[in-house]
Amino acid sequence: MSDDTVVVWDESLLAYDMGDHPLDPVRVELTFALARELGVLARPGVRLVKPEPADDALLSRVHDPRYLAAVKVAPRDPLFAGFGLGTSDNPVFEGMHESSALVAGATVAAAEAVWRGEARRAVNVAGGLHHAMPARAAGFCVYNDPAVAIARLLDLGAERVAYVDVDVHHGDGVQQVFWNDPRVLTVSVHETPLALFPGTGFPDETGGPGAEGSAVNLPLPPGVGDAGWQRAFHAVVPSVLRAFRPQVLVTQCGADGHRLDPLADLNLSVDGQRATYLALRALADELCEGRWVATGGGGYALVEVVPRAWTHLLAVAAGEPIDPATLTPPAWRELAAARRPGRQIPLRMTDDVDPAYEPWQPTGEPSAVDRAIAAARKTAFPLFGLDPHDPRD
């Protein structure tokens, strides 16, 4: 296996553009500009790969052919409605099929590079469109690129694929696609569905008949900060991954859990997000011989948060984390100010937050976070032969 890191990138990925919409491709543009200015993309062993669109046969591994046909025809029909398209969340836009297929193809290219041993890790920050359903657009997502990439891994011979979703929203589309497939474990850490779209992701969602335990959900209360989030993540995610023994780890690394994100209610920092990426890489190294496919996802603080978070993700995948105290380069600040005048441009790669946490223990008066941990462990852990009350499990 090569020790290289593949970064799938081409400016054509910015064409996934819904217009005046929260999911603005400027966040991806500014991520790559920041990573380039900080030298991440020029590191030895980092290879930029230009994506090709996923074809209909590959997309149909996840999506209904009738839905693909609708996505193709919708931009030519000003009165089109149906399949979740033409809504405020998922407006129809020119080139919708082509740009969505390219995002899916980019994540597939990342997965193929890792599975074939051409790279140890691969990243598509333009991906992570985890809400798209087999026959319906949802939550800003047209084609579900993580699910398409996982289906491709299964076709290439993977027997156990773990998907970990740390977006603030539940990874509902990926969970739905593999609900009945015991070869795929989906784990989602998200804000409670009682408070946030898409209204799913409760602990009792554990997989379909014959695939019990294929879904693990850890919903957290609004307002959780880094210490609580890290405590919850480490109390649940490593244990179920170790029990599942994946051959490859696929992750959705949405940055919308940040305290500045306008669409959600968690209180995370860029420093906490960086710590999560390090934890995911460590789990891939421990369990999958390093095989890690990382995607972006949500994130709507377009200048203040997403470029820094995903530049940290790229750096972690490329082998050497960026020192949080690093200054953002002046050239990047100028570009960010030009793209979004009036926004507060970050001066450093840190929010000056220590993401340290106290490991979970089943003792004392539980906090809201500890109750969420206990609910997830009580529901999921017995399905893996784990003791929900034993902190060693």
UniProtKB/TrEMBL annotation:
Gene3D superfamilies documented for this protein: Histone deacetylase domain (3.40.800.20)
Signal sequence, renumbered to the chain: none
SUPFAM superfamilies, per the entry: Arginase/deacetylase
A UniProt-annotated Pfam family: Hist_deacetyl
Every Histone deacetylase domain range: 21-315
Listed pathway(s): Ketone degradation; acetoin degradation
Keywords noted in UniProt: Acetoin catabolism
Family: Belongs to the histone deacetylase family.
Protein name from the UniProt record: Acetoin utilization protein AcuC
Protein source organism: Micromonospora reichwaldensis
